[in-house]
Amino acid sequence: xxxWSGAGAVVTGGASGLGAATARALAGMGLKVAIFDLNAxxxxxxxRDLGGIFCKVDVxxxxxxxxxxxxxxxxxPVRVLVNCAGIxxxxxxxxxxxxxxxxxxxxxxxxxxxxSFNCASQAAARMVAQDPVGDDGARGVIVNTAxxxxxxxxxxxxxxxxxxxxxxGMTLPMARDLADKGVRVCTIAPGxxxxxxxxxxxEDVQQSLGAQVPFPSRLGAPEEYAALVGQIxxxxxxxxxxxxxxGAIRMAPR
Length: 254
Prior knowledge:
single chain; about 250 residues; alpha/beta; two-stranded antiparallel ribbon; about 45% helix
């Protein structure tokens, strides 16, 4: 198993939800965590709790990402990146005779897909410049977050599904690009998880959504996502794979 204790980890979207649980798990593994988010109040509080740092970063802006990575490197050389930042607007291709807002589609792609690419590519460049560790010559690990919507996009999810499908599509070529440099790349495609978006729904709606999951018939816990991140980070044979974490759900059209 690969040991990264003392190394630096960046978690985008780390102020809440899946990212917050991941930041907590990585800190518990001995990594020094930098949280990238736009929510400064929540991000700074989370970073203080973990003994890490907060960086206000717009993942869709390459310059903002570069500045955040510079600051994260001051804490510790970045060996782990987990991309959790994302948005999920709902809009149909055509609704009431009007076409999907192209600006909304573009924003979703910019945050979810380009944001993941910006952070992954820039973090990878820094990882490959570092000395390898361990018998395998490892230099780092990148974990991206897609969604089951990449495969089972529902009505109104065209922008979101396209952005997450792009993350799925870049996983293997990115892993192949970085294989000879000792950097692994995997993607997690979560199903229905109890993120801040779903937490804002009435309890009966949450239970109804959870009942759609074959087993276990409930919403996933962010800690279960974080546990899989931990396994990817430490298991050297996990590379180039997209893992559905979804309780066997296959989403219906609506």
